[in-house]
Write a structure and sequence with these properties.
Shape: globular
Structural class: alpha+beta
Helix content: 10-25%
Mean pLDDT: 87
């Protein structure tokens, strides 16, 4: 049975001095004015600009990954059914993972992300499915991309899902980490035009006795890191 969780904070991974996610966030703040100036130059045709490092590039794939995420995710919302609900049996694993302490940064994980078969670009949301009016969902929403890798002989599957809806305007982003076929970590963020929202990123999952994986967000792009714990 699913339940809403108030999971322990995982900010100690973000604040670790070797955190790539933290450095990207700090750099984004420092470079804000430079990016505004660069955008202005591009607007008026004075330069061609460069690729945005925060943009997610999806792999073209003829066959999508098998995905453990329940299809009901497409109706998740920040007001309910909540994107923060997880199966009760995963509570212990997710809570335990977030209480781990990062001792050593073991590296950044580069992954090939692809759109899942139930991404709205493949299967648009309908009133019949959502039980709501069609205009509630932004075009291309809800969205779902995922990736897989093997770390230390353990299969890791990561899902990034989210949606932008209207009436009132709101959006959420959620990461799920499945390790060896079991949900082992989650973390997400949300915001609303009414001024409410929040974040419990990064998502954290234990990989083995002495390792863990975190997933955070830099713009559209997930930042995946492995830690000694």
């Amino acid at each position: 049975m699913p339940q809403n969780l108030n999971l322990p904070s995982a900010d100690h991974f973000r604040t670790h001095p070797d955190s790539v996610a933290r450095r990207l966030s700090d750099d984004a703040l420092k470079l804000a004015s430079e990016r505004i100036e660069a955008a202005s130059r591009r607007t008026f045709g004075q330069d061609k600009g460069t690729d945005d490092a925060s943009t997610l590039v999806l792999r073209e794939s003829a066959q999508s990954l098998a995905c453990p995420l329940d299809p009901s995710w497409r109706r998740w919302d920040m007001f309910g059914p909540s994107y923060r609900q997880i199966p009760a049996e995963a509570t212990r694993r997710c809570t335990s993972s977030r209480r781990l302490r990062p001792l050593l940064h073991l590296g950044l994980v580069a992954l090939d992300w692809e759109a899942a078969p139930d991404d709205a670009r493949v299967v648009p949301m309908t009133s019949a499915e959502s039980g709501d009016v069609e205009w509630r969902y932004e075009e291309g929403s809800p969205h779902h991309v995922h990736a897989e890798t093997t770390i230390g002989g353990v299969l890791v599957h990561i899902d990034m899902v989210g949606a932008t809806k209207f009436g009132p305007g709101r959006s959420f982003k959620e990461f799920r980490i499945v390790v060896a076929g079991r949900l082992a970590g989650r973390g997400g963020s949300c915001g609303c035009s009414l001024g409410v929202g929040g974040s419990d990123l990064p998502a954290v999952a234990r990989l083995g006795r002495g390792t863990a994986i975190t997933v955070d967000a830099h713009g559209q792009r997930p930042v995946v890191e492995v830690w000694g714990v």
